[in-house]
Specification:
Blueprint (H helix, E strand, L loop, with lengths): L8 E8 L2 E8 L2 E8 L10 H5 L4 E6 L16 H14 L5 E6 L1 H12 L4 E7 L25 E2 L2 H8 L10 H10 L1 E3 L4 E3 L3 H9 L8 H4 L7 E5 L29 E5 L6 H4 L1 H9 L9
Parallel strand pairs: 3-4, 3-5, 5-6, 6-10, 10-11
Antiparallel strand pairs: 1-2, 2-4, 7-9, 8-9
Helix pairs in contact: 2-3, 4-5
Length: about 290
């Protein structure tokens, strides 16, 4: 692993919703920015965005089953991640935070804001995989190809070199990919293994079509302003292999919030990985420019 200046300190381990979660933080001005990551990733994939927002207090955490957080047995239904997120926000005593979530993390933040409204003054949901209601079929998807991911690595450097020229990773900002590799492995008896195992990652994708405690019915109670940032290429079908670069966020999602803004940007589903400066600009409240990228 390359030696670099730490952007976040930690982890502090916090018990919330009956699960032990690893929480990372950078001290700064209030109110804080609270980051929730996507399936298969971890808190430190926010590093490059947090570095571009230098003055605010920043909090990022590893979801259950990810990073250094506890890894209970399946199932990993999506509403549980929302319940974890709400419980953690309350345990940390958040008030008026800016919530920033990508993919499942955005889905979880929307859930949390509905049940813990005091915690969030605004939400930035980056392709949050809140799908059209018709796609919640109540049936699991077919087994996901993440189950076949390579799990054994000699080092984070080997993982980085393997991924940097492959899709979807070759479109990522190299520093984000470096963070993903450096902090996405944990020591094993021989070498390293993924901090989020292929079995856990795949199981989360596979239950994305369940009713999920009716997430769409919760959105209308959120009073905080919500910015939805999404990729232009929507993948409406739930049949066959999942296209990891396409958007599964409902194109009309913003209409379900009381105060919403819809922004379509020319990136894949991996917007924070491809354009960390753009996401940081939204945290700054600077609009859709790409300053700092």
């Amino acid at each position: 692993m390359t030696e670099r200046q730490a952007i976040l300190t930690g982890p502090e381990f916090v018990d919330a919703n009956g699960i032990r979660l690893a929480v990372w933080e950078r001290h700064g001005t209030e109110p804080p920015v609270f980051f929730a990551h996507a399936t298969g990733l971890h808190a430190r994939t926010w590093n490059q965005i947090i570095a571009r927002v230098p003055s605010r207090r920043a909090i990022a955490f590893d979801m259950r089953g990810h990073g250094l957080s506890a890894k209970p047995e399946s199932p990993y239904e999506w509403h549980v991640f929302g319940e974890d997120t709400a419980a953690l926000a309350r345990t940390l005593g958040l008030r008026g935070a800016t919530g920033v979530g990508h993919s499942m993390g955005g889905h979880s933040l929307a859930f949390a804001a509905a049940v813990a409204p005091e915690a969030f003054a605004e939400l930035i949901l980056v392709d949050p995989v809140i799908m059209p209601p018709a796609l919640y079929t109540g049936r699991p998807r077919e087994p996901h190809f993440a189950r076949r991911r390579r799990n054994q690595w000699n080092s984070p450097d080997e993982m980085f070199e393997s991924f940097k020229n492959r899709l979807p990773f070759r479109t990522w900002d190299p520093a984000v990919l470096r963070d993903y590799c450096d902090y996405g492995l944990v020591p094993a008896a021989v070498g390293y293994v993924l901090a989020c195992s292929p079995e856990i990652e795949a199981s989360i994708y596979e239950v994305s079509t369940l009713d999920d405690a009716n997430i769409n019915a919760r959105l209308g109670v959120i009073e905080a302003p919500v910015t939805v940032i999404r990729a232009p290429r929507f993948m409406p079908s739930q049949e066959g292999p999942m296209d990891m670069t396409a958007s599964l966020t409902a194109p009309d999602l913003v209409s379900r919030f009381r105060h919403g803004l819809d922004i379509v940007v020319p990136y894949s589903h991996f917007i924070p990985m491809e354009a960390p400066g753009l996401v940081a600009d939204f945290v700054h409240g600077a609009g859709v420019g790409e300053r700092g990228r």
